[in-house]
Design brief:
The complex is a heterodimer of chains A (131) and B (136). Chain A is α/β, with parallel strands linked by helices and 131 residues long. Helix content of chain A is 48%, strand content 17%. In chain A, a hairpin with a 2-residue loop joins strand 3 and strand 4. Chain B has one domain. Chain B contains eight helices and no strands. Classes of the chains: A alpha/beta (131), B mainly alpha (136).
Chain lengths: 131, 136
């Protein structure tokens, strides 16, 4: 099928498309770096560890149970996942249902053993749960 | 055979091609305009293998989807464009895995492969160029 194509035409197209892709990548990259200073996802652990940590009771977590102010707990850690609600790949409902509550069972049931959700969750840690 | 529905047959490949290309264009523009949202979805192995930042990878991915999405929309090198987009979508589907998003992406992958299998349709630039060459 592909051999019926004019090879020269395909090569010219691919080279042109490659130049366009690389060029726009460089332009957008430099523009956004200057404008927003976006951090790389590779320093996630630094973000999590450098954030000031507090201690909270489950009662206190329960007072943050809305879409505008959403805290949850997983395995004894407290997370502010308000900004994650709209970004969760599995939909907002899964996060909204856990606002103000302990989400350990739900999180481990859905993401148990997966390193990526663990790394994502670590970014939102704000403290630990105390009795 | 129903003469009315038979007329619809010729529009099928055009609709699929335009639909697939618009999806890629939308996601490409989203990645360039709202990069922070997409950075979190880049697999760690891609970052370590490429040596690039997640932001740059998102920009590159978005640019790729826009350029090839536009080429597919106008029907320029239709089969080649659809082939690369289908492979790209297949990789995303495998990375996302068996989730609601992954299942949806699987359908999109098959649609992209369908465009690749079919090749140029009557609404593509390739078709009109070929027709022009045949006339001349």
């Amino acid at each position: 099928m592909i051999m019926q194509y004019n090879i020269k035409k395909v090569v010219i197209f691919l080279v042109g498309a490659g130049i366009l892709v690389l060029g726009s990548t460089l332009i957008v990259n430099s523009y956004q770096s200057d404008s927003y200073g976006i951090q790389s996802a590779s320093n996630v652990q630094d973000i999590a560890s450098s954030t000031p940590q507090g201690t909270y009771t489950l009662l206190q977590v329960g007072t943050h149970g809305s879409a505008a102010d959403c805290w949850t707990t997983v395995r004894g850690n407290v997370y502010d996942v308000t900004t994650w609600i709209g970004k969760h790949p599995g939909g907002q409902e899964a996060i909204l249902g856990m606002c103000g509550k302990d989400a350990t069972a739900a999180f481990e049931g859905q993401h148990g053993g997966e390193s990526r959700p663990e790394k994502e969750l670590a970014k939102f840690k704000i403290g630990i749960l105390v009795k | 055979m129903n003469p009315y529905t038979d007329r619809l047959t010729k529009y099928a490949p055009i609709v699929v091609r335009i639909g697939v290309s618009l999806v890629f264009l939308w996601f490409g523009l989203s990645q360039l305009s709202n990069t922070a949202m997409w950075v979190q979805m880049i697999p760690d192995w891609v970052i370590s293998l490429s040596g690039l930042s997640a932001t740059t990878i998102v920009h590159f991915n978005g640019s790729f989807e826009i350029v090839f999405g536009l080429a597919l929309l106008v029907g320029l090198c239709t089969r080649v464009t659809a082939f690369f987009l289908a492979l790209h979508m297949l990789h995303i589907t495998l990375t996302v895995g068996y989730t609601a998003v992954g299942v949806r992406d699987f359908g999109l992958t098959l649609a992209a492969f369908s465009v690749f299998f079919h090749g140029l349709d009557t609404g593509t630039f390739d078709y009109w160029m070929k027709k022009k060459q045949n006339i001349s």
